[in-house]
Design a protein that fits this description.
Layout: H1 3-20, E1 43-44, E2 52-58, E3 65-71, E4 80-81, E5 86-92, E6 95-99, E7 105-107, E8 112-115, E9 121-125, E10 131-137, E11 144-145
Antiparallel strand pairs: 1-2, 2-3, 3-10, 4-11, 5-8, 5-10, 6-7, 6-9
C-alpha cells in the first residue's frame, strides 16, 4: 500500500468522526476494531458489481453506517439518488460529481461532498486511477436509479 493511500485513509477516518460527532450512534462497539489496509475485506456491491466496499460501522441496510468504496478507473454508475444523506471524503483518485442544478465538480484526495436525500446525482472515477472514498450516512443505503441530473 502506498504511503499516500494510508495517509488518505487516516484523514478520511478522522474527517468521518468530525461529521458524526454529536449524532447519536446506533451502537456502541463491544470491542476495538483496528484494521490495516491489507486486513480490510473488500466485498462486491450487490447492486453495482463493479464497485467494492468495506463496511466500517453500522448497517447500511437499516440505518447509520460508514464504508469504504472503491471504483475502478473510468467507472461511472448510472445517475441515481439515495434515501438518506450521502457524505463522501475522497481518499485516492479523482471523482467527478454532478447533481441537479450543478455543473461537474472535480474532487481529489481530501475533498468532501454532501448530497441531500433524494437528490439525483452522477459520479465518475477518472480514467487515470481507481478511486477510493469514505461514504457515511445517517440512514439506510440504497441506490435508486433516476434520470440524469440537469446541469447549469
Amino acid at each position: 500500500m502506498s504511503r499516500s493511500l494510508a495517509v488518505g485513509i487516516t484523514v478520511a477516518v478522522a474527517l468521518c468522526w468530525f461529521f458524526v460527532i454529536g449524532a447519536p450512534a446506533q451502537e456502541s462497539p463491544k470491542a476495538a476494531r483496528v484494521w490495516s489496509y491489507d486486513e480490510m475485506k473488500w466485498q462486491k456491491d450487490k447492486t453495482l458489481p463493479s464497485v467494492q466496499s468495506v463496511p466500517l460501522w453500522g448497517d447500511p441496510a437499516t440505518g447509520e453506517h460508514g464504508m469504504l468504496r472503491k471504483f475502478r478507473a473510468g467507472y461511472a454508475p448510472p445517475p441515481h439518488k439515495h434515501p438518506a444523506v450521502e457524505r463522501v471524503v475522497v481518499i485516492s483518485g479523482t471523482i467527478i460529481v454532478r447533481y441537479a442544478g450543478s455543473g461537474d465538480k472535480t474532487l481529489g484526495p481530501g475533498s468532501y461532498s454532501e448530497i441531500p436525500p433524494d437528490t439525483t446525482h452522477a459520479v465518475k472515477c477518472w480514467e487515470q486511477s481507481e478511486c477510493v472514498f469514505l461514504l457515511a450516512s445517517s440512514g439506510p443505503f440504497a441506490i435508486i436509479p433516476s434520470s440524469p441530473p440537469d446541469s447549469q
